[in-house]
Amino acid sequence: MMSPAHYLFLSLAIFLIGCIGVVTRRNVIVILMSIELILNAVNINLVLFSRIFGDVSGQVFALFIIADAAAEAAVGLGIIIAFFRNRETVLADEMDLLKW
Amino acid sequence: MTSPGYFLEHLWLIPLFPLVSAALMLFIGRLLPKSAVSFLCVGSVFLSFVYAAGAVLTLLTFDPEHRVFQQILFEWITPGPIPVAGLLTPFIADWGYLLDPLSCVMVLVVTGVGFLIHVYSIGYMDHEGGYYRFFGYLNLFMFSMLTLVLANNLLLLFVGWEGVGLCSYLLIGFYFLKKSASDAGKKAFIVNRVGDTGFVLGIFYIAITFGTIRFTSQGLSDPVAFAGITQTLAAMLNQGRVAFGAPVFTAIALLLFFGATGKSAQIPLYIWLPDAMEGPTPVSALIHAATMVTAGVYMVARMNAVYQLAPIAMDVVAIVGATTAIFAATMALVQNDIKKVLAYSTISQLGYMFLALGVGAFAASVFHLMTHAFFKALLFLGAGSVIHALSGEQDLRKMGGLWNTVPATSRPFLIATLAISGMPPLAGFFSKDEILGRTFSRVATVDRYLALWLVGLVTAGLTAFYMFRLLFLAFFGLSRLSHEKEQHIHESPKSMTVPLMILAALSIVGGWFALPALWGEESSFEIFLEPVLRGVVPETAAIMFPHHTLLIEYLLMAASVSIAGLGIWLAYTLYLKYPQVQSKLVAIWPGLHNLLIHKYYIDEIYDALFVNRIKDLSTALGLFDGKVIDGLGVDGAGWLTRVFSSISMWWDKWVIDGLVNFVGKFTRFLSHPIRMFQTGVFSSYAVMILVGLVALLLYYGHHMQVLVRSLR
């Protein structure tokens, strides 16, 4: 029988993988994918606690996040393509226009 | 004198008619058909003539001593008090008209001859462009001339004086596309300005001497408030403030006379009149023979009160007049342009008038002015008719034999020629004889007038000679016309020949006012003018014309007629009977002939003395302007500005901007450590977010524990 702690650890693991991915990877697409992981980790938490408290609003919230993630991916990929057309790169450490 | 009557009350309308039609012509004349232009312009001058005649006839009904009508329309210039003899005196120039016997003569001559010339112009200008423009200028001239002769003060007279000068300029340069015409216009204008300098100074001098520029206070309600020059002069003499022959009178008279030499083409300013012949012939007749050029004579006659007190100035006038008369007559002897002969003749006759003024025979001068207006207008119009008939030919050498081809022109022309030569009983005989007689009568008291009389007599002979030379060359002998011109000869239209006939009639009867002189009485013309011309001279200094016996009178007449006859006989011999003698004469005196042909080289001398010197002065001033004003002044100011602006630029750049930049740089320096965090690489931002998150988690860790426990 799986306890809530298992879910929480799974969620934590995915979150950490996502965070490490965001921080360490250079490719912006991979960073985007990592962000998706973080979001999904949150989703697991939301669904878990929804189950535990018997309150359906957590699952509704999770659905919203899925939609939001899709939209975010679309916008993010659009930006990346536009950026690639201008600078011929998708590497994050070369995107430094906003520095001092 | 309760009501002066309709025509006198409407005196102001006389100059107004031509002004209105001139304004119409110059503003909308282009839109009007030729017939309307002729009707309006000739009609307005005719109306002026009718009103002038009405006014003069009304004035004639007055008692001779009170034949003065003065009308002040409004106060025109009130410049405030002026210093007169050290005292501030109120000074007013009004816009007013004065009709006295002298202006009666002038206004009738101007409107009458002017009207005839307007009628003549209808025919003469028919084929010319700018018909409305011509008539507009001509009417503007009529307005100015009428203002001149009707003005009741010197300043208004000066307005008319300048107005006729302007119209003269416009009409001489009527064919302005022709270089010589526009040059002649400018010459006339500029030479007149030289004379006007004297005239204006004369007016100023009068204003500060008498405190008024009104001619007379006669005919005005309040003789004290409306002071006149004549009355002020009389008062000053009575009070002994000035004496006969005082230098102030000489100065005023000479300054005014200098103005008159410009307008009336006397030595030294006569040079513009021959060139003025570039204008259309009716203009030469109206402006440069009959009316405008006599303005100087009129003005001197008008100011006779001052002149009679200045014997030196009178002598100058007489000498200049006599010199001009004979000088111009000799130049007329050899001219080949029909209009140039007449131009020099005009100068010569004007010289006669000034001779008369100078010897004190003002009435004789005005008399000659009138008769001269008749016959000289006729001569010019006749010449114009000949030129018209020959399609523009003006050279006497290419005329001849026209006596029967253009009868309606040649007959009046003969009458005018006889009149100007002084043949009795035509007009010129009486007026010229009166001038010569008056000059001669002064010989009795002062010997030196004998020379003036002799000059006048010789000039009479020369006049007869050159006029008959012109007549013979143009109308008699063999035709020297080119074949082509011969084909096109045509008599002028009625509108041109009828004025010729009327003027011919006037040239015959115009002198008959002086008929009483034949039986030893005073000429009725002189009696008419006497109240205006008597002046205010003290009894002892008055100019006396001792009466000759009738015998001397007749001898004088015989002398002038016979010398004129001699001139005619010479012209007949030289130009009709033995034309070959001319060339022999030229061969005997080539130098003299050359001198006359080149008009004594006066134009060249003036060019060398004045025109070129003024051009040199202009060049020098131009250089001064270029080098000093532009170079030092304008460019220097520019250079200085540039220097100042460089200094201020340096200050701005290094001090003002430097301060601003220092503030910026200092801020930048202070912000340096913080700036390091903003790398622009978002991975590093993500790291910072994470670090922040972890820090928060660690800080609030115990709250988490509470949360987790509650879940269990």
Q: Level of helix content of chain B? A: over 70%
H and E order of chain A: HHH
| Biggest sheet details of chain A | none
Structural class of chain B: mainly alpha
Secondary structure tally: strands of chain B:
4
Percent helix among the residues of chain A?
over 70%
- Mean of all residue-level pLDDT scores of chain A: 89
Gross geometry of chain B: elongated
Beta content of chain B: under 5%
Shape of chain A from CA axes?
elongated
Question: Strand portion of chain A, in percent?
Answer: under 5%
Q: Could you give the distance between the termini of chain B?
A: 142 Å
Oligomerization category of the chains in this entry: heterodimer
Largest sheet entry of chain B: 2 strands, antiparallel
Uncertain parts of chain A: none
> Largest interface, by Cβ-Cβ below 8 angstroms: which chains and how many residues each?
A-B, 17 and 12 residues
Flag low-confidence runs of chain B. none
- Please give the alpha-carbon distance between the first and last residues of chain A: 54 Å
Q: What is the CA-based Rg of chain A, rounded?
A: 17 Å
Give me the secondary-structure category of chain A: mainly alpha
Question: What is this structure's SSE topology?
Answer:
The complex is a heterodimer of chains A (100) and B (712).
Chain A: H1 4-24, H2 28-53, H3 57-87
Helix pairs in contact in A: 1-2, 2-3
Chain B: H1 6-9, H2 13-28, H3 34-60, E1 69-77, E2 82-84, E3 87-89, E4 93-99, H4 101-124, H5 131-150, H6 154-172, H7 179-210, H8 229-238, H9 247-263, H10 272-275, H11 281-290, H12 295-302, H13 304-307, H14 311-332, H15 338-358, H16 362-389, H17 407-421, H18 427-443, H19 449-475, H20 483-488, H21 494-509, H22 524-533, H23 550-577, H24 580-588, H25 590-597, H26 602-675, H27 682-699, H28 701-711
Antiparallel strand pairs in B: 1-4, 2-3
Helix pairs in contact in B: 2-3, 2-5, 3-4, 3-5, 4-5, 4-11, 4-16, 4-21, 5-6, 6-7, 6-11, 7-9, 9-12, 9-14, 11-16, 14-15, 14-19, 15-16, 15-18, 15-19, 16-17, 16-18, 16-21, 16-22, 17-19, 17-21, 18-19, 18-23, 19-23
